[in-house]
Amino acid sequence: MHKIRILVLGVLFLTTSAVLHAQTDSTAKVMTDNLNSKVQFSKDQYNQVLQANQDFLTAMQKLRTDEGSRLSKFKSLKSLDENRDAKMKQILSDDQYKLYLKNKEDKRKQMKSLKDSK
Question: Where would one find the signal peptide in this protein (predicted)?
Fold first, then answer.
């Protein structure tokens, strides 16, 4: 009976991990496609940006489940965002990177206005 419980828990863990991974991949693709419509990547850049977004979202997902205060999580999130920006700067041309930053700022303003309207 004990072995069956361990087996069931293992299957549940693997299933949950697979679902979270699929959601992260799907979200990263949507993010990359959205940004691509504004910045227009080459195929190689697209794949690199997709990987950077997947890495960012995976780390964010882990951060959500980590222990710690809201402040420490906020600082960690800020660090993750800065790391993604650094990757984007390496991947994109100067003009593309400026468009990326503009898009990022526009999204922040949009989120802020949504938050303020509530």
Answer: 1-22
Picking from 100, 60, 54, 52, the residue whose alpha carbon sits closest to that of residue 77 is: 60
CA 67 to CA 69: how far, in whole Å?
Answer: 7
Tens digit of pLDDT for each residue in 81-110? 999 999 999 999 999 999 999 999 998 888
Residue pointed to by tokens 């100067």: 94
pTM of the model: 0.76
Describe the crossing of helices 94-116 and 2-39 by its angle, rounded to 10 degrees: 110
* Residue 18: half-sphere exposure toward Cβ, Cα within 13 Å: 6
**C-alpha closest to that of 84 among 51, 46, 35:** 51
